[in-house]
Amino acid sequence: xxxxxxxxxxxxxxxxxxxxxxxxxxxxxxxxxxxxxxxxxxxxxxxxxxxxxxxxxxxxxxxxxxxxxxxxxxxxxxxxxxxxxxxxxxxxxxxxxxxxxxxxxxxxxxxxxxxxxxxxxxxxxxxxxxxxxxxxxxxxxxxxxxxxxxxxxxxxxxxxxxxxxxxxxxxxxxxxxxxxxxxxxxxxxxxxxxxxxxxxxxxxxxxxxxxxxxxxxxxxxxxxxxxxxxxxxxxxxxxxxxxxxxxxxxxxxxxxxxxxxxxxxxxx
Length: 268
Ligand SMILES: C[S@@+](CC[C@H](N)C(=O)[O-])C[C@H]1O[C@@H](n2cnc3c(N)ncnc32)[C@H](O)[C@@H]1O
Prior knowledge:
The protein is of the alpha/beta class and 268 residues long. The protein has helices at residues 33-41, 57-62, 84-103, 121-132, 146-154, 174-183, 196-205, 251-263; strands spanning 18-22, 44-49, 72-77, 108-112, 138-141, 165-169, 186-190, 212-216, 224-226, 241-245. The strands form 2 sheets. It has a 5-stranded parallel beta sheet, sandwiched between helices. Strands 6-7-10-8-9 form a 5-stranded mixed beta sheet, sandwiched between helices. Helix 6 links the parallel strand 6 and strand 7. S-adenosylmethionine is lined by residues 25-26, 112-115, 118-120, 145-146, 150, 190-191, 215-220, 239-242.
């Protein structure tokens, strides 16, 4: 069952559906079967581009599955900027381009790296579309996110038993980074590319540098998966980089230690 309030809106007659399509972290075979079905049948496939005519990582993952003779290919501008006053009008313009297709009854598949619901451009677009036309149906296809891909590549769990997991952009102030490292067993730092030296310093201060793995362009060509973070401290890292800090498989040791402690008879 699903609450009425959480049910997807039915599409009004003649209006297409906007699909937020998760396409995974890079390897094309990490696309889900559902994403593949929508991708190969939607009349319009759109992607976020930094500038007009630009490509994107998500588009490069999926373009081999798109048929230009049947499907329109649409790069929409979403600049990489923190100037919100300029961003919102550009997002609105991109949303209006999409709405023209949706109002003409065409479904649009908007592709997103990793999983749509985790720090994606689609989330901004969704809000803008909702403001401009709340009747447009929006559906999301979940996917493999960079977090789960990185854990698989590094061979370390994101959480085992009762362990806690935190996910935080590494661009936060170092006091926050330190706090999560001191209170959480597993931490995933997103968006590390420009702040790696600062993050390395915090990892050293908290004694967790030995548990850290840097994953850059994970599962894609030219991927980097390494525990030697210092080697990349003064190099230009790809934007698609994260640092995973996790205990190596030590859960059984912890259980044994707890069991041994419980079996010790209380002191007389
Ligand atoms: C805007 S967020 C998008 C996250 C994405 N929606 C997901 O589910 O993984 C971009 C950040 O995700 C991380 N990221 C995305 N893809 C990655 C990959 N293939 N390898 C390593 N990190 C990745 C990086 O930290 C990057 O700065």
